[in-house]
Amino acid sequence: MAYQPKSYRKFLAGAATAAVVASAIAPVGASAATATVKSVSPLKSVTAYKGQSVKSVKLPTKVTVTYTNGKKASVAVKWSTLSTSSTGTKTLKGTIKGTSKKATLKVVVKADSIKSVAAQKAVSVKAGATASLPKTVKVTYYSGKTANVAVTWGKVDTTKAAAAKTVSGTVKGTSKKASIKVTVVRPLVKGNVATVVDAKHVKVTFDNGKTVNVTLSNELEDGATTVDFTYYGNGYKKVKLDKTFVADPIVKSVSAINGSQLEVKFNKAVDQTSAENTANYTILRNATPDTSFTAELQDDGKTVILTFSTPVANTLAENFSVTIQNVLLEGSYYDTINYYATSLTVADTKAPEIVSVSSKTNADTASSVTVTFSEPVALPTLKVDGVTKSVSLSADGYTATINNLDLPSTGSHTIEAINLTDLSGNVTPTTTKSFTVTKDTSAASYVVSTSSDNAILLTFNKAMNVSSVLSGVTLKGEDLNDLSLGTDYTVSQVGTSNKVFKIQVLTNPFTTTKTSNKYTIVTKNTIADSLGNLSPATTNSATLSVDTTSPTVQSVNYVKDTNGKVAKLLVKYSESVTPQAGTINIVDLTDGTTAASVTATGTLLADGQTVEYTLASATALAGDYQVQLPASIVKDTSFAKNASLLTKQTVNFGAASSTALKVASATIVANVATVNFDRDVTYASATNPANYTINGVALPADTVITYATTKKVTFTLPTNFIATTDTGAVLRVANVKTPDGVTVSTNQTVVSVVDNTLPLFSKSLINGDGTVSLTFSEAVVASAGTIGDFTFAVNNKAVTVGNGNVSVADGTGSDAGKYVFKFSTSVATTAETVATHDATATIYFDVNGDGNYTAGTDILIQSVTGLQDADLANYSSTTYNASKFSSVVIGSIASPLVVKDLEGNALKGNQAITVK
After folding, report:
1. 339, 734 in Cβ contact below 8 A?
2. SS3 of 55-111
3. How far apart are CA 297 and CA 275, in angstroms?
4. Using one digit for the tens of pLDDT, what is the confidence trace for 903-912?
5. Cα–Cα dist 41/457, whole Å
């Protein structure tokens, strides 16, 4: 080519490039003028449904064509008419603009089917109720028609309230799923009221219409008006009770708090005198009576600590049987705690600790320290800030006091105990506790009140020095002149808190025209609190008004003797009284005759309001009688000495009872009990298992008690009731009654019982060598011959024991007392044919125990091929490591015969323990 200018060469290059681009993106343009459609690419078939709208069938709108020049393009296509009136494969022809060639499309018309499932409206259901879900759902077919089709919903968990969850449903005739959102809501308590059944149960009706008995996790407390409980996982708080709960007065528990003390907990406050009367507690210690103990009521009024003179040594465990009866309720002279009996084992291996250290002063230094221990201790060696000090130990052994100190009230101090020893012999070699001195320099204050027309009370806000108060209070009359201590008034302490003091006015200031009198109380500046802080002198006033109200009867109760006869009357008045002579008659309401009477001056009891009258002779009374109290049988303690008025009050003396019902004899031989009563007893009460206890535990509710005669019952102690053989067990009978309502008197009989509790599987473990150790709940016989009492499953396959696949042996070393199971492999071989290496060895676990490898049944462990006959000797049965199974379960047959505990009780049947 001849030389061309650079600009011309540049133009040609650009033109060439443009031509290449144009031919790549526009084959139907410049190239189409010379190229024609050579072929149409085949299309995938399209699915339609009978009756489906043709417009809704998705037919392709373009097809791919190939031109004679090799180029391809996507071009529009117009299809022949499609009919969906019948099923089958329809062939459509497609017209392509600019060519006579046709596109071909196969349309498979299927039977009409469900295209979609309608969304469901969310529902809610009360917890504990059954969800009401729609039985059908609306579906739309490809043909456009709709229908309601049956649906099966998945499980709806209504055990407790839960936020909305989606539940899936299987729709009949399609794989498409329905779904619905379900919210489980907490049912409301109807009226927010629960009906009291007993201390452990309430009856509740919910707004879903369901009425249920709810078992409470915590027993109702005496006086409860509301209850908290859980139902179907839903918590309910402060639900009102239909009535205030009045608990039966019972002993809640008896427990050992250390080797020398038992803690008795009552559910109601008890009378201190009767609670601390050791005659109300019967203690058998290793079947021998122990009367050498004290009883002390604690500050809560519901707990008594029994302290024994001889503690249980820390090397021993002793069996205690405890019976409690005749303990009165607080403020009552006749209501007692229900009879209670239990047994427990006492062992103490815990060493004592320092619980707290207290030191108080009103100065810059403290002179004493009080140390409180976790339990009674022997006289301890104590150091204060590293210096050994003389110690004074309290009578109960709980506290130690160190005097003659000079401890600064600022900074921290340390108490150290050396070889602190409790009464069982447990020793804490050394223990320390830091403390600070509490400095209290505030003066005490008091408030004034009146309790009658002749008594003024001073109540201080802190414990006082009693003698300083008794000598530091003076009283002035209305004329502001001093009255004479001992003649006109006295000052005394009330109770033991050292906070309450009473000014008793001795001179009557009232006349027929003067009905009130103002007094001035003067306290000297010598009055001090328990730390010595002096109070400033004060002047206060109190006005006493004449009492003109007669004492009234609040209640009349009675006490029966051991023969069920009324021996005493207890009359409680509205205020403090003084008994007067008089005759009280008990009148039969049916005929008006006097059934009994007492002429005497009653005995005033400790509360100052209750008077006890003892009948001249105990009288059998039953049902309603009228107790007639004459006027002036008591007078109040006011200056006026107001006399009581004639009072007639109806009293129900309960059911008639002649003589006490007693247990004549009770024996247990080979766990078969025979109980003889000295009188006829009712079938219902005598055959109630709850009325019989062994070591404080009632017989199970399903115990069969045979009513042998009207005076005799027999029963066999149920299996699994006695865990340990006990030659000093205590049998007690309670609440058994005669036909006329007399309840059996207090009783207890020492009997022998034999362990009848079946051994249980306790724990299993795969050992390092692949064997399995099985632990039992108690000692059992040796393993020889026991394999037939067990069942086995591995890899979810039941194993038939045979041909050595499973064996058992006694454990040794750390496995002593256990059974050790071994799973062994089996080997199946085939010999080689002549002059080939085609011998095989199949190593397997023989599930069916038949000694042959069965594919699909036995578990293949290894298959070895290409062996010679000589090689087969290298393959033999070995222990198979149980950890290589996907699962291992050991069970017991329905009625084991060989595995027994040392008392001869056979292993519990139909147990199963998952090893893996």
Report:
1. yes
2. HHCCCCCEEEEEECCCCEEEEEEEECCCCCCCCEEEEEEEEECCCCCEEEEEEEEEC
3. 7
4. 899 999 999 9
5. 115
CB 225 within 8 Å of CB 244: yes
Tally of CB atoms within 10 A around 430: 12
Residue 20 has pLDDT above 50, yes or no: no
CA atoms in the 13 A half-sphere facing the CB of 287: 10
How many whole angstroms separate alpha carbon 814 and alpha carbon 518?
87
CA distance 304 to 290: 17
469-517 residue pLDDT tens: 999 999 999 999 999 999 999 999 998 899 999 999 999 999 999 999 9
Cα gap 394→508, rounded to integer Å: 46
For residues 526 and 469, is the Cβ–Cβ distance under 8 A? Answer: no
3-class SS at 11? helix
Max CA pair span of the chain: 163
Calpha distance 110→52 (Å, rounded): 10
Which of 116-120, 747-751, 815-819, 908-912 is predicted with the least confidence, judged by mean pLDDT? 747-751
Q: What is the per-residue pLDDT for 38?
A: 92
Question: DSSP 3-state assignment of 537?
Answer: coil
Query: What is the average per-residue pLDDT within 868-875?
Result: 89
Q: Which residue has the tokens 């036995």?
A: 858
**Each residue of 541-577: pLDDT tens digit?**
999 999 999 999 998 988 877 667 888 999 999 999 9
For residue 119, count other CB atoms closer than 10 A to its CB.
Answer: 12
849 pLDDT above the threshold of 70: yes
> In this structure, what token pair is assigned to residue 640?
């006026």
Is the overall model pTM greater than 0.70, yes or no? no
User: What is the Cα–Cα distance from 156 to 128, expressed in whole angstroms?
Assistant: 11
CB-based contact 566:658 (threshold 8 Å) = no
The rounded distance, in Å, linking the Cα atoms of 414 and 435 is 6
Q: Is 708 left (phi over 0), alpha (psi -120 to 50) or beta?
A: alpha
pLDDT score, position 563: 66
Buried b (16+ CB within 10 A) or exposed e, 519-546: bbbebbeebbbbbebbbeeeeeebebeb
Host H or E run for residue 469: helix 466-472
First to last CA, the chain: 92
DSSP assignment of 124-189 = EEETTSPP---SEEEEEETTS-EEEEEEEEPP---SS-EEEEEEEEEETT-S-EEEEEEEEEPPPB
What 3-state DSSP class applies to 814? Answer: helix
Question: Cβ distance 136 to 150 under 8 Å?
Answer: yes
Task: Please count the CA atoms within 13 angstroms of the CA of 491 that sit on its side-chain side.
Answer: 20
Tens digit of each residue's pLDDT (9 = 90 or more) over 219-255 = 888 889 999 998 877 889 999 999 988 888 889 899 9
Range name among 158-162, 339-343, 684-688, 721-725 with the lowest pLDDT average: 158-162
What φ, ψ does residue 700 adopt, rounded to 5°?
A: -55, 150
Distance CA 594, CA 619 (A): 12
